[in-house]
């Protein structure tokens, strides 16, 4: 039986596009299949903020950030905390990825026309010792154009492959099985779904109109993770975090369901670290949702007071932006699945950035005027829309009204006004003195020593109860499903491995389906800015390896 292509790529997200682009450069024929309609080309990367992890970049050097390969590798390994026998390949991928981030990654993207916002962000600051979790220096580089801007060159390269007759795009093709011939996986079977003209991200129909069978010398799985499948998230929830949350909101659409992972596993692949996930603790329900249970993550500056459901401050160093997994662990120990930020308008105006391309029209639209307008606004427009319409926001002039509003949002009236007033007053007393024992105040002052934070991310220390800085604001924070850190085990050529450690002949994997490389390159935690880059790095590796291996 003749082959339909040299390689079949399953999943038209960033990793799939990167793999396909490399195959086109090598002159290989590709069929790229995806269950969603063409208007969703690019997958979840389209919705992203476009954050990328670079090491010792020109942007860092201009801001006097001293970074190095050795420091980045120390941070990655301290953050990942690899501790399992199956972490062999994830560790190898981590070493290779830091090499990439400190080496050709930026010049490779820059050569394709990708540009970067000049202010570098400082995500996942850690707060432990030097060898523990966190970024020792700012490394979060925002793509000029956010997710769509990063996708653009890879979409362009794939479209050029279509024009050359090397790429066939088959949308609405949902894979249901992988088959073998003579010991090699070379057959992809599935269902053809009804055509759909829904806008990107909206739920598309699932009526089956036919079946398909495709054959190729190699198959690359780039189907993403499990974040849209809450049942699977709960099934894989780690025991170390206790019971899974009763309520979760979704950072990805429901079609990000993880089913292709099971299909590949059934074909002989080794799926590892399935209990490692990266869910955010600062999720808010989108007041203008695109998909079901659509949540948005707040990328917070350091000044908001973070309280548990009962109104108690989270322990050191669980400040905004410091340790996502540590915060999630603490929240689940409280017996509740939500927390609160308490702040004022002065803080929200400068320190709240909402993740996602649609929440940052200035950066996504590459508008210098828009960026300047955001910097000058008391509260940026997208954030103001949540203050006005968001179900998780309470905005009041006085603390009593704020507490009443907080308690009205929850099933139990857990916040005591007198206790919260004492907490705020005690914190505010520390502001009057250049010395403090409140480590969050120390963290705010430390953040402002970094020029980028002082310019756009951290307000000067001030009393939260200062009427001139008001009104007061409380934000209920939900658990937001997002990234899958485990996945299909792969070697450094992105070849999928079996449980015995041998390559599963004919199968490669990249992106989130491969745990962004190796089956879990991040270990237990992410340094942020590493997901899109992981899609690019592993997708490129898969495309290049498959191009070499097919005849």
Can you give a write-up of this model?
- By secondary structure, the protein is an alpha+beta fold.
- 33% of the residues lie in helices and 21% in strands.
- It has helices spanning 14-25, 58-62, 69-80, 88-102, 105-110, 146-163, 230-235, 259-266, 324-334, 345-351, 361-364, 368-376, 381-389, 399-409, 417-429, 439-447, 451-456, 531-549; strands at 5-10, 30-34, 51-53, 140-142, 167-171, 173-181, 184-193, 208-221, 249-250, 271-272, 277-285, 295-300, 305-307, 338-344, 352-354, 393-396, 472-484, 487-488, 495-497, 503-509.
- The strands form four sheets. Strands 1, 2, 5, 6, 7, 8, 19 and 20 form an eight-stranded mixed β-sheet that branches. Strands 9, 11, 12, 13, 14, 15, 16 and 17 form an eight-stranded mixed β-sheet that branches. Strands 3-4 form a two-stranded antiparallel sheet.
- Helix 1 (14-25) links the parallel strand 1 (5-10) and strand 2 (30-34).
- Helix 1 packs parallel to helix 6 and helix 3 runs antiparallel to helix 4.
- It starts with a strand and ends with a helix.
- 54% of the residues are buried.
- The mean pLDDT is 97.
